[in-house]
Amino acid sequence: MTRLAAFDPRVAGTFPLGLAVSGSDIDVLCHAPDADAFAAALWDACGDFEDFAMWQWRKADRPVIAVFSLAGVPFEIFGQAQPVEAQHGWRHFAVEARLLRLGGADLHEAVMAARRAGAKTEPAFARVLGLEGDPYLAMLALADRDDDGLREVLQTRGSPGAFR
Fold it and tell me: Which sign does the torsion angle of CA 92, 97, 101, 106 carry?
């Protein structure tokens, strides 16, 4: 994190949410307005780590992604020109954290059961909450709701029954 401090790195995903399963990686989201500078910094900071690989998407604003293992733990670092708070990955993480806070242990256990059954995080939440359509878009739509709006989702769509 110190090596990438210039890119506002933020840990997101299943580990800080307490939803990691076997094979989960640690996700780090970064603000990288200059993809070339970010790629060079990633190479310098992480290029010597086990299984290091890096690539750049060809679509949208062409984010840069690096993966590697450190002490046997897989990492994925994602750098995009958008500030971290605006990135889909961060918005998913933020709404999932809010839902878990509001839904308590029952929601956490239901999402973990879906995760243990093989679901990725956003599809697990969508399944448990009874959200229809693309689970990634459905979770982004929830990110715009305030806590009262999320409580409504938890009470009316929650399965089984309502959470909290």
Answer: positive
With contact defined as beta carbons under 8 Å apart, do 153 and 128 qualify? no
CA–CA separation, 46 vs 5, rounded Å? 13
Is residue 19 within 8 A of residue 117, CB to CB? The reply is no
Q: Please, which residues bridge with residue 79 across strands? A: 30, 64
* pTM of the model as a whole: 0.91
Cβ atoms of 63 and 78 closer than 8 Å? yes
Q: What is the b/e burial string over 43-56, where b = at least 16 CB atoms within 10 angstroms of the residue's CB?
A: eebbeeeeebebee
Mean pLDDT, rounded, for 23-36:
96
d(CA 146, CA 154): 13
Three-state secondary structure call for residue 6: helix
Cα 43 to Cα 60: distance, rounded to the nearest angstrom: 22
- pLDDT digit string, tens, across residues 105-142: 999 999 999 999 999 999 999 999 999 999 999 999 99
User: What φ, ψ does residue 25 adopt, rounded to 5°?
Assistant: -110, 165
3-class SS at 29?
strand
Number of neighbours of residue 58 by Cβ within 10 angstroms: 6
